[in-house]
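Lab meeting tomorrow. Look over both lines:
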Amino acid sequence: MYDLIVVGGGPAGLAAAYAARQNGAKKIIILERDKELGGILNQCIHNGFGLHRFKEELTGPEYAGRFEKMLESTDVEVSLDTMVLSITPRREVHCVSAEDGYRILEAKAIVLAMGCRERTRGAISIPGTRPAGVFTAGAAQRYVNMEGYMVGKRVVILGSGDIGLIMARRMTLEGAKVLACVEVMPYSGGLNRNIVQCLHDYDIPLYLSHTITDIKGDRRVEQVTVAKVDENRKPIKGSEMIFDCDTILLSVGLIPENELTRGAGIEIDRRTNGAVVYENMETSMDGVFACGNVVHVHDLVDFVSAESERAGAAAAKYALGGEAAGEAIDVKNGDGVSYTVPQKIRIDNVEKACEIFFRVRKIYKDSKIVVKSGETQLASFKREHLAPGEMEHITLPKVLLDKASGEIVVSVEE
């Protein structure tokens, strides 16, 4: 019987396991399906990680290495090349590996840290033929940075998420010609720093309110048609541009990897596609916690680590017999807000304050974030700039939460 089983050995799983060990959990195991720890960070060889957590700029592998080194000083077990198949309400984890075969492990608490996956071409239904040369940006990143394969020479990128922007720069540095980055929305889905450092610095054009309407090619992509779209995202006839290219990279969104979560019967939030969580990152299943991109997609790994440390500490407390109690109030999104995490807060379980993370639906200039409970305004936060591509968070002290009743609504007012 383990005190804690952590599913996933990426940044979320590493931070959760370390925090749990620091908070008294003794027998801990990390189950990771890849052949090494670190998760997606291993293929993110650019810098920009760790400014919040370590106060210095690190590459992805360096950031993962810091946590791996921290774990080496503990007795946390690691099982690599291990696929988790299912989780039961009795906190049994069914897993399989070449080395140990099929196992059923029992735990007092479980942390889900499976990360997220990319949307593919099939999810967005691009018309045209189906030649080779269409990759998700993350798959291309792994090929180029880890496997040593060059995926193409003339590239068009669909979507302006952070991975797509970073791959625009990476492909350019490897000698490819990135012809355009095409975004269906009227704003970019990535961080502003990535737009500047990855597109502007390399004179790569960004076409907002545009999408790919056709792909041509026999064995390999030969040509794509890009058209401007109206406010309903419908292509405008006569606005087509044709690019001769051999590669298309898709950066069209990330989805929390929640097949295990759904299979266990844990409540899923339709807004995030992740588990519904309480203030301590506990899911609707007692003793099962979730953190990182499996709950909602983060911009910065530093925020993933902080959230996961909170989940790990709470899981350790649960494993040692300290169950969270008290009535929960719902946290809901109001005008201009697309989702909130956590979705429920047990005020009695909050010591000093509770952080609420969310994203907005559009770009806002001078505006304010307003938090209400019924007709009572609990708090207001001024913001000069809000964008859907940047995750926001606010901190609500317990003294304010004590005034709430029933539910809390977070909204944006211009």
User: Anything to note?
Assistant: The chain has a mean pLDDT of 94. The radius of gyration is 22 Å. The chain has three domains: 1-117+254-323, 120-252, 325-414.
